[in-house]
Amino acid sequence: MPNNLSIASVIEKNKLTSTVAYLILTKITIIDPATGLLVETLYLVKNTEDVIYDGQTYTAFAFDISTEDSVDGASSVSLTVTDYSQAIQARAEAYGGCVGSSVEIIIIASTSVGTSLKPEVTEFFEIISASAENYIISWTMGAEDILAQRFPRRKQMRDRCSWVYKGNECTYAGEVTTCDRSLLGDNGCQAHNNTINFGGFPGIRGTGLRYG
After folding, report:
1. With contact defined as beta carbons under 8 Å apart, do 192 and 172 qualify?
2. DSSP track, 23-50
3. Which of 44, 65, 109, 169 is most open to solvent, judged by the fewest CB atoms within 10 Å of its CB?
4. What's the pTM?
5. pLDDT surpasses 70 at 208
6. What is the Cα–Cα distance from 74 to 206, expressed in whole angstroms?
């Protein structure tokens, strides 16, 4: 049975000498605030090397998580990422600082690397504010508001693909550098010979848009 540890206690425990280290995994699901569509998911681990957990590779990255208790008993959680490549910062700038995106914090024992064992702690947050300066990105996170979520997350559109071009779902790896995300357009899936991976719903009648 996993230990009932809070994020704060695990961070503190990780400072102590122990034969078993705790690894902090972070799953950041970036949502386009203009469309509500999934852009991509980042998988990071605070470690010196990449790790595989539950079949997913988490990339080694420098980040810190801090918690702060206030007098009214409410806690705030901050995620600070050191991003010298500015790869994550570019995503944040393109999508409103990633405000509204979700963050899943997963804490596992080092002995769980390469397995699918249940994590010690799993917490879900929503990014509520963001700032960036000198290669440092800081996100303030709050608990996800389930009632404010769109269900399903993905819009069902007849004539427009919702996948990220050349992303994991699109899979197109050819030389064409752009796509208009249509099915039959001059620069769409058919033109790319990639209709099998079209991320729309051509069978929908009527307006071509629904939420399930």
Report:
1. yes
2. EEEEEEEEE-TTT--EEEEEEEESSSS-
3. 169
4. 0.61
5. no
6. 47
